[in-house]
Amino acid sequence: MKTGDKYILLEKMSPLQKEALEDPEKFWGEQAKCLDWEKTWSKVLDWDYPNAEWFVGGKLNACYNCVDRHIKGNRRNKAAIIWEGEDGSCEVLTYYELYRQVNMFANVLQNLGVEKGDVVAIYMPMMTEAVVAMLACARIGAIHNTVFSGFSSEALSERINNSKAKVLVSTNTLYRRGKKIDLKGIVDKSALNCNSLNNVIYVPRGDEDIKLSFGRDYLWDELMAGARSRVEPEIMDSNDPLFILYTSGTTGSPKGVVHATGGYLTYATKTMDWTWGIEDTDVFWCTADIGWITGHSYVVYGPLSLGSTIVIYEGAIDYPEPDRLWKIIEKHGVTILYTAPTAIRMLMKYGEKWVKNHDLSTLRLLGTVGEPINPRAWKWYYSVVGDKNCPICDCYWQTETGGHVIYPPNGIQTVPLKPGSASFAGVGIEADIVDKDGKSVPPNTKGNLIIKKPWPGMLKGLWNDPERYKASYWNKIPGVFATSDYATKDDDGYIWILGRADEVLNVAGHRIGTAELEHELVSNPMVAESAVIGKPDEVKGEVPVAFVTLNPEYVGRPKEELKKELIQYIRDTMGPIAIPSIIFFVSKMPKTRSGKIMRRILKKLVVGEEIGDISTLEDTTSVDEIKQQLKGSK
Ligand code: ATP
Ligand code: MG
């Protein structure tokens, strides 16, 4: 290393990146031409810290860009959505069919009085109608607020009330692991507490009668039967909101992130292409739920804006057998698979025989997102799933960033990969790793990952909460966008995400990243998943406490023996200071619905505080199990 960051940055930088950083406005102005605009902008960026307006004065419609423009060209009969139900049924929607349905549903919403600027909540599992509903909102200028269908009635009411949604689109029944879940029951309960809500539209599933509440509830099919088949797309200002989406709630109460039309769609479209180098023949499968940002940018807006074919699967990826995911890839000829480390680890636990029974030769790229991927899972994904033929795109980003910000840009440049590193800052992203005062830290030093300048995918704000917007992103480190994640850059300039910035322990004056310790624990073959939190300690200030789930072959072994081995392992790999003071063996971790471990819950349990907002917790039995163990340890 000669001169610090600059040297490495320039050496690794693609010509595109150089262009982007040298003159961002000129660059993004060029890139925004990937969309069809009704009126060109007068100014690329209006930056009034901390508020950014992109493509000022530009007019466009997001739905037009994702649907209409393709049916005018030769993609009219191309598959837009390949849908598979958990029961194995399939449905293929061409771009033309998608266009028709979106137009009709846009008219349905209009007939219920939904106007430009109104909020429509969508509480649906992975059904084609969910995508239709999102695009129909965009078509008439309504703001969609998608709520993950695994949420409780309280979490749903909270999001409806906070966003003042007028209409809710849902379904009566959700199928998961062969079981039926009564979604209508949840909606009914939730709707009682929502004053803003005028109407609920249900997509009917199954043969049961749906009891509709007169004047409030309608059936999708009946409304569609009476709808017009053509609705002109509303011409939107580039800075009009496209959607509100609440964050996963891993670190605190969820934040209502708002994304605006022109900047967001430009960024989702370009990063889709820069990351994957999309070709017209690709079959892209992102397994994320549309209730999360990944489902917005890389199930709906990014791929459809590029006229790509997407796969949507309704159910659990290991149901009815552990090879369901591999079966789907084989059946539909998936070329790019984009999933989460938690899913990879789960499938890895079942063993490679489930993978090897399937022909996965159509795959050309693999992706991960959501949390750092541990090298063991990375290597399994690379060699067993990808047969060492598919580069792995580890994509780092957030609800707030709108699209990938740290990722290997396969579409434009090849970079050698390092398992566990998301590689480099993406095109047009001026990222750095800094200390709490905003000063760049030297290589191999832990710091805060920040972004120095606005980019088109950057959130427009938090819904009706400008103060929290400032406090959460701009006041932490003066003048820059704080991701609140810790990272480090190695000697080759690769960025390694180390976990949440607030998850660092101070053990007798030594700073230990919980992510680092977790990383070591899961490198041990016995451990499937781990979570580490800090417990206050009179002598050392803080001590690490580890929660561990075991790989199946170790489950029956005596816990004391396992503990001893793990302690020795940490002593050898990280040193005695990092040895957990307690190790709990649990059968599952408390996770958000998007698969992230909720360490804040573990922490509260250990220190004996109220556990607070658990609206996004996946399975409360995980908490009960830990409570039991804690009782036992006292
Ligand atoms: P909240 O902000 O409410 O606590 P959340 O941060 O979990 O919830 P998301 O926006 O869905 O909500 O998740 C973004 C976070 O996920 C990032 O800040 C980072 O911590 C983590 N993350 C995402 N992708 C990666 C990745 N490839 N490597 C490491 N971490 C990742
Ligand atoms: Mg976050």
From TrEMBL:
Gene3D superfamilies xrefs: 3.30.300.30, N-terminal domain of ligase-like
Keyword Ligase found: yes
InterPro entries linked to this entry: Ac_CoA_lig, ACAS_N, AMP-bd_C, AMP-bd_C_sf, AMP-binding_CS, AMP-dep_synth/lig_dom, ANL_N_sf
Domain Acetyl-coenzyme A synthetase N-terminal intervals: 16-66
Gene Ontology terms for molecular function: acetate-CoA ligase activity
Entries under CDD domains matching the protein: ACS
PROSITE patterns xrefs: AMP_BINDING (PS00455)
Name listed for the protein in its UniProt record: Acetate--CoA ligase
Organism: Methanococcus voltae PS
High-level lineage: Archaea, Methanobacteriati, Methanobacteriota, Methanomada group, Methanococci
